[in-house]
Amino acid sequence: MGAATTRVRGGRRGLPWLVLGLWVALLAVAGPFAAKLADVQHDRPTDYLPASADSTQVARLQERLPGGQTTELVLVYHRASGLTAADRATAGAQVAAIAHRHTLTGRTPQGIPSADGTTLMYPVTSNEPGIDEKKRDAFVDDVRGTAHDTGGLTVDVGGPAALATDAAGVYQSLGGPLLYTTVAVVAILLILIYRSPLLWLVPLVVAGVADFLAQAAAYALNQAFGTAVSGASTGIMTILVFGAGTDYALLLVSRYREELRRHERPYDAMRAALRGCGPAVLASSGTVAAGLLCLLAADLNSSRGMGPLGTVGVLCALVAMLTLLPAVLVLLGRRLFWPLVPAYGSTPKAGRSLFAAMGSSAGRRPGTVLASGAALLGALALGALNLPGPAKQLDAFVDRPESVTAMRTLAEAYPERSAQPIEILAPAGRADAALAAIRGTKGVADAREGRTGGGWTEITVTASAPPQSAAETATIEALRDRLDGSHVGGPSAQQLDLADTNARDRLVVVPIVLLSVLLILIALLRSLVAPLLLVVAVVAVWGAALGLGGLVFGPLFGFHGTDPGLGLLSFVFLVALGVDYGIFLMHRMREESLKGAEPSAAALTALRTTGGVIASAGLVLAATFAVLTNMGLVQLVELGFVIAVGVLLDTFLVRTYLVTSASVALGRRVWWPGPLSRTPDAASTERTPQPVG
Fold it and tell me: Is the pLDDT of residue 161 over 70?
């Protein structure tokens, strides 16, 4: 008997070390793959454009033409008081130096003066960089270094390639600043939550390990299935790893602390903690993963690639928090909680619970609370009517880079023509007819035939209207109607396709997300009413968060447009993550009901026991997404703001008051049509699981 007990205890002590050793081996294998993720990260137009759009076909076909993809720039020389002869000579000399240093396509660039004499524009095109983004950025930087301001003459380099280089600079900065800022924010919140000099470090380190593993898995996805890896998707993946991973850690550590008071050995306490909260963590992470995978139905390349990468982040966080974190916590023992060590046999200090008070207020007048909360969310949602229109390409940056300054100068100096080309790929055998049809289209100022290869001929069109104006959009649509068998692309056509495809993706992806999440909740909660309640709640949160965005994006942030993908991406994240917290609350409520508690008592007990953990988790998740508001791209700022605000609304209003009050008001009907909805002693018909919160 004694020998058997010794073997069991020895196995208990050895299992955490075995888990730790397996993780070390796993990281050693994953290391080389994680290091290669940056090599497959691309932010080319085709990585963001709709898979089936005309503009995507143009970008792909241009890569196959002689010389490959072109790099198009516009050098903008400007003097507000009017250009002098010396200014024109300086501009000509600088452009000649650029032509000497680099291989340019076509004839030597010729300056195009503005009608008011203040601006001189030089279009510069080169095939030298090809599709290599690093070579493109180096080419743009060299041109900017050669074309420099002098004697009051300003020089700005714009055009599609310059805009892409400036955007790539922002995406490249995400890897470092985004990670460091996220880690710092999570660390501060964990220190405040745990009030321990050491405990906060363990979940943070484990989250970092999970992020490293997620990078390796993302690289493997790219190699195996060609999954698009962009700066935005990898940034979101990191935020999900730290946000969701820390949430799971908070739930596990909270339960582990409770079990340490009931069990003498940390190993036994951890086993009980995993039995108690493991099912809820698995269900919640599965819901988030299912919601994100619905993005695979999107036609937009960037959205479709973000789904698998986000799912990889959540699953890596789940695996790390359910294996590595428990092993480390057990090995470090109770002393890790110092100075608030949960001693065996002790009881936590009794105190007035904030969430107990909030739950009591919701329980006294559930109908009033529910109606007031619904009215508040509805009023906030009306702010969505104030959202700016679709963002133009020049509105994509928080701070105005050189490329945007150049394009704005061109728009003011050349109101009679566009400084941004419309690119058309016509079948080579019908190029002459296509060129004639193009020149006869209203809104076309100029059209020139370019390269031919692979059965296609490139035609560069200059519109008579400013880029992304209503008149230019009408010209693009007219060209697409007239040119049968040809493809119409270029920067403005790309933005038009992005808006159209996002509208299509919302109609397709949103119902799939709602249905998949609802089915998972029905299976988990064995009810129809409770899942519908949670889904309606998160949809209301999404509408209110968008409404708050409408109230601040223009008036407070000064944004002139809204990213077309904001509605879809914020919906997917808020629904998936919001239901995540709903699972914690409703699962505990169901357990209390199975024990025989009355509906109101079950709801209030669930809020009292899980409210603190859910609030802490919500703060961490909101803070991690709020990090995006410090990035340099409007789309990231808007997405981070809407999700962060939505998570806070969900945590402190919807979960605390509305779901609780609705559950109290509905009583046993919240579990309809399951056994709990029919008889007070229905708990006897089901096996009682371990408590969660």
Answer: yes
The DSSP call for residue 455 is: T
Question: How far apart are alpha carbons 84 and 634 in whole angstroms?
Answer: 38
Q: What distance in Å separates the CA atoms of residue 398 and residue 400, rounded to the nearest whole number? A: 7
Neighbouring-strand partners of residue 155: 77
Could you tell me the sign of the dihedral formed by the alpha carbons of 129, 130, 132, 136, in that order?
positive
Q: Give the containing element (helix H, strand E) for 462.
A: strand 456-463
Of the candidates 281, 275, 269, the residue with the CA atom closest to the CA atom of residue 245: 281
Q: What are the beta bridge partners of residue 633?
A: 397
- Measure Cα distances from 350 to 83, 260, 346 in Å: 79, 17, 12
Please give the angle made by the CA atoms of 571, 576 and 578, to the nearest 5 degrees.
90
Residue 382 in this model has a pLDDT that exceeds 90: yes
pTM to 2 decimal places: 0.83
- Residue 412: partners with Cβ closer than 8 Å, 6 or more residues away: none
Cα 211 from Cα 573, distance rounded (Å): 19
Tokens linked to 567: 């509605």
Handedness of CA 32, 15, 336, 613 (dihedral sign): positive
Q: What is the pLDDT of residues 67-117, one digit of tens each?
A: 777 888 999 999 999 999 999 999 999 999 999 888 888 777 888 899 899
Radius of gyration of the chain (CA): 29
In the DSSP assignment, the letter for residue 454 is T
